[in-house]
Amino acid sequence: MTAPPLASGPQGPAALRPLLDIVLDALREGAEARGGPLPAGGPEAVAARVRDALGEPLPAEGDPEALRRLVRALAAGTADPADPLCAAHLHTPPLAVAAAADLAVSVLNPSLDSWDQAPAASALEALVTRALAEAAGAADALVTTGGTESNHLAVLLAREAHPGVRLVHGANAHHSLPRAAWLLGLPDPVAVPTPAGVLDPAALDDALTQLQGPLMVAATAGTTDAGLIDPLPEIADLCAAHGARLHIDAAYGGGLLFSDRHRARLDGLARAHTITLDLHKLGWQPVAAGLLAVRDTHDLAVLGHRADYLNADDDTEAGLPDLLGRSLRTTRRPDILKIAVTLTTLGRGGLGRLVDQVCALAQEFATAVEAHPGFELHDRPTLSTVLFRPAGAPDDTVAAVRRRLLHDGRAVIGRAVLDGRLWLKVTLLNPYARPADLTALLKLVDLAALPEGHTPG
Ligand SMILES: *Cc1c(COP(=O)(O)O)cnc(C)c1O
């Protein structure tokens, strides 16, 4: 192979253009080879095809065809969230404009650990994080890799403000919250049972009354399993009455901030000390696009950190922005560019309409489930998650239906245990899925629920 060209610099664009053509062609070829929402055949078949495409992982001499071959293999073997029948998780189909912006980040490779590696990117991040924080009723926000890192930072900030703080969360909370408490050496968290799917204020009041020492409550706006929103104003009142700190995990529900129709369901959000947002869910961003918003910017002071090669005192005094305190990471990719491009290209209106569309689709899907005698609906959806199950089926049948559809490459649907039973979960994040796609999905599940070997007549 001749000398491999660089992505940026004077020759960068000319070197990239033919490579991008290869990538785009390979994406199309791979999708055609797949022919559905995910590859058929299950893990072994997929791994065998990847092994073939890869060949020797570190050959003595390279092969210029590798780009086409591997991108094609990845596309052929992907679970594509842009396919309406790929609807298991909070796994979003990214917007084309966001992916295009992300390419510029890969090319320029700014790193947000010091101003001299990211002059414009750091300025952009400062402006856009503040605007997003304000949209959530907070003062500032840090960019993270997602909800998990945001929750981790929130628990860290609580610990620094209140040494020995104990986390109190609903049983419906994301698993990353108790994990953060463990990681940060905090007392064992207390999980308040949530039999109705959301935190019950009376049960939370009891827990806060009984517990000693500094407390931090984590509420959820958009539970991962069911898309439910805890009663935020009541929880904020209780936290104020008990002197507890409040964190709201709005990784999923935070997207409602863009929607005029649905924003009011986040009332109370602004009363939290910290808020987790995650734009690789209801924000249609490529991974990663997380944020942690804070109400009081003084809370962030504890993250201040000095490394002479990155933020020497005299450099900071001379006016070079000090970026190290904006993250626990050092080298850090400007995920803010794709976010900024999306916000300014679509505007609040454009994003709000996408949010409204997925919420409306979920209502339509729930109505179709209710109207079908073969299915039981868990509840009307709050966000864009619908839980349902084949009527009268035991849990192992429900689990088998999901795996059968995965194995055959026909649909990607999720699972969730609620009320002690296993449910099928459809998380609708594709704003362009049509009612006919939802009907097709229901039909696939119906067929997959038939006993093995049964062919419908
Ligand atoms: C998805 C999710 C998270 C975790 O976010 P990642 O981006 O996967 O780290 C945290 N909390 C809730 C409520 C979520 O739905």
From TrEMBL:
Provide the leader sequence positions: none
GO BP, sorted A to Z: carboxylic acid metabolic process
Any one cellular-component term (Gene Ontology): cytoplasm
Q: Which domain of life is it from?
A: Bacteria
UniProt keywords, alphabetically: Aminotransferase, Decarboxylase, Lyase, Pyridoxal phosphate, Transferase
Q: Which residues carry this modification: N6-(pyridoxal phosphate)lysine?
A: 281
Q: Which Pfam families does the UniProt record give?
A: Pyridoxal_deC
The UniProt GO MF terms for this protein read:
aromatic-L-amino-acid decarboxylase activity; pyridoxal phosphate binding; transaminase activity
Q: Does the keyword Lyase apply?
A: yes
Q: Does the keyword Protein biosynthesis apply?
A: no
Sorted alphabetically, which PANTHER family does this protein's record hold?
Answer: CYSTEINE SULFINIC ACID DECARBOXYLASE (PTHR45677:SF8), GLUTAMATE DECARBOXYLASE-RELATED (PTHR45677)
Q: What is this protein called?
A: Aminotransferase class V-fold PLP-dependent enzyme
**Whose protein is this, by species?**
Streptomyces phaeolivaceus
